[in-house]
Amino acid sequence: MDISDCAQLVQVRRNGAVESRHYGVAVVLGENGSSLLALGNPEALIFPRSALKPFQAIASLRCGAQLTEEQVALACASHVGSFAHQQLALQILESAGLSTDDLQCPEAWPVDSATRTQMTIERLPKSRLTFNCSGKHAGFLNAAKSLGADTDTYLDPAHPVQQTAHRVFEEFCGPVARTGVDGCGAPAVQMSLLSLARGFHHLLATSDPDAQRAVTAMLHHPWAVMGEGQANTEVIKHAGVIAKLGAEGVLAMAAPKGVTVAIKMLDGSSRGTDLLALSLLHKFSAIDENSYRKLHQQLQPPATTVGAQAADLQLAGTDF
Q1: How much is the pLDDT for 312?
Q2: Residue-wise pLDDT tens digits, 236-256
Q3: Is 8 helix (H, G, I), strand (E, B) or coil?
C-alpha cells in the first residue's frame, strides 16, 4: 500500500492563518485490538525504525542476554546520550566481557546539551556509547555472547540474534514486507502501520515473560528510554503509557488498558506527533484527565518569535 493515501494530521496556524500542514497516517486500536479510528490508510507500508526497539529487546532476552531491569529499558531506548545512558550501555557490554570497540553503531555526539558541553570542556571525543541506539546494540552483543555466537557479525540479518528479532516482529506485529538497513546498521523491517499498532497492543496484552520484562522496565525506568524532559520519557512517567518514537515521523503509544495509537508522518516530521497521539488516547478515555492536561501543556511547542502569537497546533481526529 502507498503511504501517500494519507490524511492531514497536524495543522500549524499562526495568528489565525494556516502556516504549515503535516500529512500522514494514524490508527487507534481499542482494548480488544479492534480498530477505533483510522486517518489515512492504516495498511500503508512503513519502516517503523526505532519504534521496534522493544521487540528487539525481547529478542535479545530470548537469546539469553543477561540484563538488569534498567538495562532492558536502555535496550528499548532511543536515548539522548547522557553520561548515565553511556555508563549503562557500557555495563551491558562489560558484563559480557565486551567493550565499546565491539559496538558497530556510528559514533555520535550526545543529543543532551549538558553532556555535550561537558564532553567538549573535557575534550572527550564523540563515541558509539552516545549514539541513541547504543543500548540496543549492547543488548544484541550481550545476547550473541550468551548464545556463543559470533559478535563481529551481530548485525547480519542471518545472525541468530537478528533471526530471533525477525521472528519476534512477526509474532507480535504480523507479516514483514521486506528487510532493509537502519541508520544504526541493524536490520530495518518494513510492515504496515496497522501491524505496528497491533504489536504495541500485544506488548500489553501478552503473558510472554520477556515482553512483560520489556514493558515493566520501560515503566520503571522511563529516564533510560529517552531522557528527562524528553517526550517519550515524560509520557511514560506521567501517564503510564508505553511510548516509543521511530525516525522519520513514526510514533507508537500503548495505554495501560491496551488502547493503542500508531502514527507515521509522510514528510518525516515529528512535530505534533506526541500531542496527536496523546489527544487520540484522550479522545477514547485511555488516559486520565490530569495526566493528559499536564502532558499537553508540557509538550506544546513554545512561541519562537517575540511579540507574535504562538503557533497553534490543530490536531486531526480530536476535539482541538
Answers
A1: 61
A2: 999 999 999 999 999 999 999
A3: strand
DSSP string of 242-286, one letter each residue = EEEEETTTEEEEE-TTS-EEEEEETT---TTHHHHHHHHHHHTT-
Residues in the chain: 320
**Rounded Cα–Cα distance for residues 185 and 81 (Å):** 18
**Three-state secondary structure call for residue 207:** coil
Question: Looking at residue 17, what is its pLDDT?
Answer: 85
Give the pLDDT confidence of 129-157 residue by residue, as tens digits: 999 999 999 999 999 999 999 999 999 99
Q: Which residue has the cell 557500557?
A: 90
Closest among 50, 162, 145, 130 to 95, alpha carbons compared: 145
Burial 254-279 (b: 16+ CB within 10 A, else e): bbeebbbbbbbbbeeebbbbbbbbbb
- In this prediction, the residues of the chain whose per-residue pLDDT falls under 70 are 1-2, 302-313, 316-320
The chain-wide mean pLDDT, for the chain, equals: 93
CB-CB neighbours of 69 under 10 Å? 15
Q: Cell 494514524 sits at which residue?
A: 26
Cell readout for 47 is: 519502516
What is d(CA 168, CA 57) in angstroms, rounded to the nearest whole number? Answer: 10
Distance (Å) of CA 73 to CA 32, 85, 137, 169 = 26, 10, 13, 18
Question: How far is the C-alpha of 108 from the C-alpha of 269, rounded, in Å?
Answer: 21
